[in-house]
Design brief:
Length: about 80
């Protein structure tokens, strides 16, 4: 069961730093664990966009790795 406190904490982290992918990664994990897949997918897509648009190439490469992992998971 999803704890409202956990989700509130994640939402607060996103509000404090909306340009960071980390809050969205946490939101994806929380919603996915709660079987709220529509919200989890939305959070994942936002996280992925944040990674792709990151100012440094190391963080951008995480977006490529995430895409590969996602494709593998979908194939399973």
């Amino acid at each position: 069961m999803l704890s409202d406190d956990i989700l509130l904490g994640v939402e607060t982290a996103i509000e404090l730093n909306p340009s960071s992918h980390i809050g969205y990664r946490s939101k994806h994990a929380v919603l996915n664990d709660a079987h709220r897949y529509d919200g989890a997918i939305k959070a994942f897509k936002i996280m992925h966009r944040k990674l792709e648009n990151a100012p440094d190439t190391q963080t951008q490469s995480c977006a490529n790795n995430t895409s590969i992992e996602t494709e593998r998971a979908i194939q399973l």
